[in-house]
Amino acid sequence: MNINKDQIAEHNKRLEPVQKRRFEQLAAELSGAERIVQHLVDFQVAIPSWALGTGGTRFGRFSGGGEPRNLQEKIADIGILHALNRSSGAISLHIPWDIPEDYSAIRTLANQHGLAFDAMNSNTFQDQPGQALSYKFGSMQHVDPAVRRQAVDHNIEVIKHGIELGSKSLTVWLADGSSFPGQLNFRRAFQNTLESLQEVYAALPDDWKMFVEYKAFEPNFYSTTVGDWGQSLLYASKLGDNAYTLVDLGHHLPNANIEQIVALLLMEGKLGGFHFNDSKYGDDDLTTGSIKPYQLFLIFNELVEGMDNRSMDHTKDLGWMIDASHNLKDPLEDLLQSVEAILIAYAQALLVDRPALAEAQAENDVVRAQEVLQHAFRTDVRSLVAEARLRAGAALDPIQLFREIDVRGRLIKERGARTVATGL
Amino acid sequence: MNINKDQIAEHNKRLEPVQKRRFEQLAAELSGAERIVQHLVDFQVAIPSWALGTGGTRFGRFSGGGEPRNLQEKIADIGILHALNRSSGAISLHIPWDIPEDYSAIRTLANQHGLAFDAMNSNTFQDQPGQALSYKFGSMQHVDPAVRRQAVDHNIEVIKHGIELGSKSLTVWLADGSSFPGQLNFRRAFQNTLESLQEVYAALPDDWKMFVEYKAFEPNFYSTTVGDWGQSLLYASKLGDNAYTLVDLGHHLPNANIEQIVALLLMEGKLGGFHFNDSKYGDDDLTTGSIKPYQLFLIFNELVEGMDNRSMDHTKDLGWMIDASHNLKDPLEDLLQSVEAILIAYAQALLVDRPALAEAQAENDVVRAQEVLQHAFRTDVRSLVAEARLRAGAALDPIQLFREIDVRGRLIKERGARTVATGL
Amino acid sequence: MNINKDQIAEHNKRLEPVQKRRFEQLAAELSGAERIVQHLVDFQVAIPSWALGTGGTRFGRFSGGGEPRNLQEKIADIGILHALNRSSGAISLHIPWDIPEDYSAIRTLANQHGLAFDAMNSNTFQDQPGQALSYKFGSMQHVDPAVRRQAVDHNIEVIKHGIELGSKSLTVWLADGSSFPGQLNFRRAFQNTLESLQEVYAALPDDWKMFVEYKAFEPNFYSTTVGDWGQSLLYASKLGDNAYTLVDLGHHLPNANIEQIVALLLMEGKLGGFHFNDSKYGDDDLTTGSIKPYQLFLIFNELVEGMDNRSMDHTKDLGWMIDASHNLKDPLEDLLQSVEAILIAYAQALLVDRPALAEAQAENDVVRAQEVLQHAFRTDVRSLVAEARLRAGAALDPIQLFREIDVRGRLIKERGARTVATGL
Amino acid sequence: MNINKDQIAEHNKRLEPVQKRRFEQLAAELSGAERIVQHLVDFQVAIPSWALGTGGTRFGRFSGGGEPRNLQEKIADIGILHALNRSSGAISLHIPWDIPEDYSAIRTLANQHGLAFDAMNSNTFQDQPGQALSYKFGSMQHVDPAVRRQAVDHNIEVIKHGIELGSKSLTVWLADGSSFPGQLNFRRAFQNTLESLQEVYAALPDDWKMFVEYKAFEPNFYSTTVGDWGQSLLYASKLGDNAYTLVDLGHHLPNANIEQIVALLLMEGKLGGFHFNDSKYGDDDLTTGSIKPYQLFLIFNELVEGMDNRSMDHTKDLGWMIDASHNLKDPLEDLLQSVEAILIAYAQALLVDRPALAEAQAENDVVRAQEVLQHAFRTDVRSLVAEARLRAGAALDPIQLFREIDVRGRLIKERGARTVATGL
């Protein structure tokens, strides 16, 4: 199924008068509303191919229906999202789950939906049917060079798929680590991993970036070989200029100050991209903004300040992606909520009165610094985000329209109630 | 110094046109704005006497100036707050720091400022000069009955001071616990504490409440004898109908779901009151709402729902108090920020569309339940809070007025730059 | 395959001289070595039927070989463990994974291996094929009474299976909870759960116990409806005398003092049993004693002290079970390591000089209290544990013998390399 | 007071027969007992001058008696420790608390007690009487260059004192950070700090090391400007070859894998030294080994492996120091317990069968790797540690002798019951 322009136009027509009033009222209060709206129009968040199905835990999975059964249907799903919000204009593929049979056809299909190919993702955390060697004890860290070789080759193959599709980056997330003291020699695991990454890096086209993702724990429960931003930065620095750290919000120890990490990585010119989600306990992979929206705002506050300080392009110079697991919600609704939360946080960060904040900081006026930030956060920016959607040709209320035209029901009719998408 | 009505009137006159416009715009969007404003007018948060000076850590204290030197000046400080926001109409005293010399004079003074006497607080976590026995190894848990006796007697004395002033509740926070495995017999520590509390409870007037506060750790670093809500509830249940659990937001282990605790304590009829503050790591005692404003909203969401379910009076049936430590900010400005954050969260909770939420819950419509809550949270309710202030005769922008008339400068002139208030 | 007595005898014959020397040297240092050895001989830890296969995470599972394919083979596996260590004399079944076709045959088989039937476990955290209603949004907490009915009926069915086999307890672990703010009305979820539990409790034979297990998070990531010991105790108290709290070591928030929880539950007469495992981050389900062996000792220290204080029988009055997930290790070797760690901690706890500890506590001699505990912990008690095995007819070094006679290789030969046991 | 050799000799004479038996029995079981004993004899842990008095929390301090009143008495206290255990042969001074009036006399005094001068410590986390500018908002990070200048000058002064005394390193611990979002520009705070450190580094003698200590939080509760090992390593790498990271065990977020950090810092050649203590919740500064002795062992396991891999000298190439706070215990007894725990962990690490561990790792034999480590940890090595003391001329049981000759009583008699040492 597709969402057509008439459906959106009709939906917007109904909601536009209220939106117009709210936007005008807010724009009159703010300076720079137009600038913010334009930033919001430009901002695009990639959707990972594996987030379109129902997620699960080790205890089980409660599938919904109408999940995409192949890459074409995944693209179609993201096409629906992008039609609804015009902010989801990219797909991030996972190999081997998404190996295209016909690159050209896939490129054309994505193009029809207005979608670009974001970072390619490799998988060395599972054993695939017919795989020669097991990743049970790691991949790039493995004590056996043959396993490392297999992992390197797989990543190089992923790059090749990406080249065909027009992707420009490779995200390497390694589950490598250990679950018990003594299992690993930490130093050797690091060095094996570094050497493996170097081989992959050497195969990277010049205009590509490599993102080294870190994670504190899970699926290993004692150590992770790319365990925190310090380790990721060590790898990225040793690899070279095109290697960067990737931050996933859920991959930290309790109480970590993620916004400070972001600021320092930007300072070092080594922040590569973001995986958005939210969490209360561990890597819970919940809807972005559903648990700690103020933290999300504080992170965007650092991103905007740091990118502007380095004259970076907000839309192109960092990789923005959602990475969540939809165990209970309809995956597409969940993604719509996540994108909305991201745009709200971004809009709030754009609202921050930077000269006033700088002045408060210069005077150690902590009270005022907080007032400046909270003024932006407490402002109801939803009419700015909606205005951006309106101008971009998206729906004023994507979830409402999603339900009105019964997208899920139609997907189930098309695909069946018992489909299960690849993913976690 | 005092804030007089003319100062407030003049301040409001300047800001009122903008406020009027904002409030009217918002009221037109909402149903029930007037009801919410009235709730906000009625809501009062007690200020603890020990939060008026600069706080410190074990590493030091960086005092500001003009801190109150005695109980009269503490009352004056809260009088300033209450004049500015009309939401700080109560003082919570700490004995022995605030023993009045002349009850009648103190009552009259508080009355002049429109302040009631909230919960009395005892102190068995420090040794006072001349104290016969030390609390180094606990107070009500102590292996020596004479120490327990001393702690009980002190609490009974605190009740007596409270009776003279018109207070109606006693908050017992015990630092009792242990810093090393083996130090305590947990069972005996519990039983000693229970017996001591029972003696204090027996001395409680019939119309008083006893609040049993819990805390996970600090100043003891291995165990705390009233360490979590489960333990506090055990004590409160064994003590009797007038004993309740008191929740301090900073007194939990990492990632605790405080809003669920609140809901269950309300369900059991055993929630007594609240100590507001905010924290990122431990009992950081930061400005309320400065770190996790969404959590604060979720807590108020449970409070409003739970109190309404039990037909409780929002303003009278629970004890509301700020308990924070102002290490870096001007204490009075910090308290103004905290009260503002509390009122915002309360207003947002009042805004929640309860029938819609109940319906979403009944249908397991998780997406919509989130939309309902986040709609309330994302609404900019500041004009409601300001409207409540305007109607109550408070300042539209308390911090701005505080600075305009240079309250701190004048307090320093009156009291000196080197005063140090009692407190933490 | 079976381990026969000759294999054990031959193994022991080789190791016995060294063991004899070590035991005699240690026994000469201690008072009461014989008493401790007898306690160790008597102590039995139940093995859950689902811990015999390779465990996994949501990211995947790396199966080993020779996993048991049915209940008979699970019993055989535990029979091997029990033959090797004589401390694993019970099996804990999980329904529907282990529904017996022929009770009598299963009872006979278990009896041949010297195994009793420990607590029965129900499963309302997964949907079974053909199940009428889904547990996606909870079971006993569910807003729909029909789902609650189904969950209650399932538990009653589990009791019936248990009666046929001679079990005397039911463990109820509920995954019920929520992953997003607003999803649940906490109070109603509690009350629904309580009512459901009451119906199950009503169906419990008089000589049975019900264990109410709590867990902080996972698979739900915002709230859990039996989330901590306080909640479990509330349920157990409202249910009645035969309802108890069950403590699983991995089910707590970071830094929780589990030993204090154990002591207080014993004080209240409401500790029912234990699930042993170890963890660094969350419910990591690692080998018991592999991460925090001192914590394990401190827990046993409270157990021994508290049980003795209530004149409880160490072996019968609490339920002892391992509950772990063997993602990387051979499950049987992992279980042997876990049982060994439990016996070591138990032996150390039995070694604690209780009068000396009590005296140190009575004098607030924190240094000495620590010395007393650490003396026990630092003592190398392995020769006591080995002696107990020797006397019970088990192997002096179970893992060594397991490998010498290539148990796993023979299981693979019998059962195949690609079997996958039911479990997590 | 001093401990004289006769007192030790007499004490040892009594305990020696038992010790001799235990040591011989253990030595017969082990290979390399003599090598381990020699390592233990050589190993020295520095004692910080501020750990000799009673510590406190922000809630208060419960002083003991007989605390050292000046640098001479602090040296005397450490002299007592060193006489008792011959493993505490260095003192670490804190400026301005320990500014010597007469360098030569202090050097002579230390020499008499066999004490070297370990790392010098600066203090920019407190304001000293008469200090021109305040560190309330940081020192080296401060927005005001004059404050940074003051902090740099202070550190350079500290180096000068150290040169006079024969110290060879400077430890910089900065409390710099922020307690509220918005307070700091993280990037500028980092850069200011780096520039300040560079100025201090430039003043460092060629044969000195600079240790950059990190800490996750406290006394700032939102961000710390040297907040984790990644940040410390960034500073140290930018500073130069003589700058190193210093690890304090209590300065991490919950659940951090400290042993992996240690291994990686050693790999990078950037581990400088250690502050030993223990903790359950935050920077609790408890007796080393009192909460997580297995973690301490695992850290030493990495230290020994990593140092040997780099052919480092265990005793000279890293800085070993205790950094704890003695709130409840006699500070000297607490330090004796800490040193004992360190030596035990070190001995256990020396016991690890490295070839067997390497082999298990090479085969991904996780079970055996754990067995190898736990064999070392479960071995009762106390007789090795005691043997080292015996050979070095120390007391076989330092705490027992400390009590037998009533050291504390005599110190109180000499110094009074109400002395308060400088410190935290």
From TrEMBL, chains A, B, C, D:
**Which keywords belong to this entry?**
Isomerase, Manganese, Metal-binding
Which SUPFAM superfamilies does the UniProt record give? Xylose isomerase-like
**UniProt keyword Zinc-finger, yes or no:** no
Q: Which InterPro entries match?
A: L-rhamnose_isomerase (IPR050337), Xyl_isomerase-like_sf (IPR036237)
Q: Which GO terms describe its molecular function?
A: isomerase activity
PANTHER family on file: L-RHAMNOSE ISOMERASE
Protein known as? Sugar isomerase
